[in-house]
Design brief:
The structure holds 2 protein chains of 2 kinds. Helices cover about 75% and strands about 0% of the residues of chain A. By secondary structure, chain A is mostly helical. The longest helix of chain A has about 45 residues. In chain B, about 40% of the residues are buried. The chains are: A mainly alpha, B alpha+beta.
Chain lengths: ~475, ~80
């Protein structure tokens, strides 16, 4: 052996870089040579351009420019919402009209059959009416909103949003990909939480998971859109009403983004301390959208999926609400007992007991919060029939709603506990009860404080 | 080849050739996998509205890197145009 090493034969010297200590060097050489080889092949086969001096570059120059990048983002968001609000109004009325006409037919069928009152109550006034509301109120906005959002996705706009916003996430101590998981959350928070797997660092993944609920999800968009339409829209001349309603929804979404950044900042400096890890973002070329695919994907995968989920959960929730509202202890219904117990808390938060009860019963899915509020009011008072937005407005006004109430409900919709599916997903992803609990308490406490401040503040300056 | 200039330092619109990558471990591998190997040409093409991250043209794709990460990549601007 010693004889060989003394001789230092050339083979051994050549093998030296292969020693474990030089692992990095050998890996670099492997990758470099792979690229050299690939480039050599490429040069023979493909003609490549210089850096992009084409339409893509020009588009990027506008969409991510210093002065226009952010205004364009806001404008696109407002435009999408404005189209949704304007376009959803008429089909919504049409659907409501049709579904309540069907209710009358069903009612007379029940009469003719001589069905007992409780069965009629549970099935028609509970289940059917809630379902009718979910479909009439939610289907049209979703059928317009989702294709528009999918169109932006398909064009390749989302990576540009991440590119524009990354500096904010970097400053908040969060990973750049959190912007993408946040966008995914606008679709569905449970999907958003699952998508956090793309973040490798556990610290940054947890921040992204815990803040995902601050993205307004599909289940909450319809509530926000409906409330903004009937309360904010009514504050100005009809010509501007859908514009103002759209701006209010944009405001709520922006509030959610600000809260996301703020909470990420707090978490990355307290519970989840650390520095941002490595981040690479590809800005793929813009693509020509495939309209057929967009419509199929957004209508089948999103609209019908969300609507189906809402229907499956709304049906039993409608029945439960009706039973609670029609089972009496003394002369007061169980529902009224529960809601009057919640009422004091609701009042200081600018809402009432029925609204809080609706959020609690809406734990399985945010989609059913508004229908439960409606049911609560209808079963507490007279059984009026709702067949349009204006009837809904009258119902809410009759129960003491003002635009402050609407703002507080919208804020609480943004800031309360994540829905049951999301909580379950958070538990599955983190495998810790304490992170799940934090994900529940963090937005809830924020929501209580925010609505309290808004309501008390509005009271102080006598709005 | 002894350059202390990093990819984060080169102005938008200019190009450079990579001399070495300072970082180690999985981050190094990720950079290499993107085509950021010593010897390759990189063009700085645009900064985000807030100045960070910066988008680079690397072997036919546009890739954005945070300036902190780009400063791990040392470059040489001589002889590249």
């Amino acid at each position: 052996m010693s004889a060989i090493s003394e001789q230092k034969i050339p083979v051994l010297r050549e093998l030296e870089p292969l020693l474990p200590a030089n692992e990095a060097v050998i890996k670099d050489r492997i990758v470099s040579s792979i690229y050299q080889q690939a480039e050599a092949i490429c040069r023979q086969a493909v003609k490549t351009g210089k850096p992009p001096v084409n339409l893509d570059a020009r588009l990027d120059g506008i969409l991510t420019s210093r002065w226009l990048g952010f205004p364009i983002m806001l404008l696109l968001l407002a435009l999408v919402l404005w189209i949704t609000i304007t376009g959803a109004n008429y089909p919504s009325q049409l659907l409501a009209g049709g579904l309540f006409w069907l209710e009358e037919q069903l009612a007379s069928l029940f009469m003719a059959w001589g069905a007992p009152a409780w069965l009629y109550g549970i099935l028609i006034l509970g289940v059917y009416r809630t379902l009718a509301w979910v479909i009439a109120v939610m289907l049209p906005p979703m059928a317009i909103f989702f294709p528009l959002f999918t169109l932006l996705e398909d064009l390749g706009y989302l990576p540009r949003v991440a590119f524009n916003m990354d500096n904010l996430f970097r400053r908040a101590g969060a990973h750049g990909k959190q912007c993408l998981t946040m966008c995914m959350g606008f679709g569905c928070n449970a999907a958003g939480v699952t998508s956090c797997r793309i973040i490798d660092s556990p610290r940054e993944r947890l921040i992204a998971i815990l803040t995902n609920t601050f993205s307004v999800c599909n289940g909450r968009f319809p509530t926000l859109i409906v409330l903004a339409t009937i309360f904010m829209g009514a504050l100005v001349a009809p010509a501007y009403s859908s514009m103002l309603a759209a701006l209010v929804v944009v405001g709520i979404i922006m509030t959610g983004i600000v809260v996301t950044l703020f909470i990420s900042y707090l978490l990355s400096r307290t519970l989840l301390r650390g520095v941002p890890s490595f981040f690479v973002l590809e800005l793929p070329p813009f693509r020509k959208p495939q309209l057929g695919q967009i419509i199929i994907r957004s209508l089948l995968d999103r609209t019908l999926f969300v609507l189906g989920r809402a229907v499956v959960i709304a049906a039993p929730a409608g029945a439960l609400t009706w039973i609670l509202a029609n089972s009496f202890v003394g002369d007061v219904s169980v529902f009224t007992r529960l809601t009057s117990w919640l009422d004091p808390l609701g009042q200081i938060m600018g809402m009432d007991g029925i609204i809080l009860m609706a959020f609690l019963l809406g734990l399985p899915a945010n989609e059913i919060v508004l229908p439960i509020i409606i049911m609560g009011y209808m079963s507490a008072g007279s059984m009026l029939e709702l067949d349009s937005m204006s009837a809904l407005r009258t119902l809410l006004l009759d129960h003491g709603w003002t635009w402050i109430t609407a703002i507080c409900v919208m804020l609480f919709s943004l800031l309360h506990f994540p829905c049951g599916t999301t909580l379950y997903t958070i538990f599955k992803e983190t495998r810790r009860a304490r992170w799940t609990l934090l994900a529940l308490l963090l937005p809830l406490i924020l929501g209580i404080l925010t609505t309290l401040l808004v309501n008390q503040g509005a009271g102080l300056i006598k709005l | 080849m002894h350059s202390s200039l990093s990819l984060a330092d080169i102005p938008v619109g200019s190009s450079a050739r990579i001399t070495s990558i300072v970082t180690i471990g999985p981050n190094r591998r990720r950079l290499l996998d993107l085509g950021l190997v010593p010897g390759s040409r990189v063009d700085s093409i645009r900064r985000s509205p807030a100045g960070n991250p910066t988008a680079y043209w690397i072997k036919g794709t546009v890739i954005a890197l945070r300036n902190e990460d780009a400063s791990q990549i040392l470059v040489d601007t001589r002889g590249v145009f």
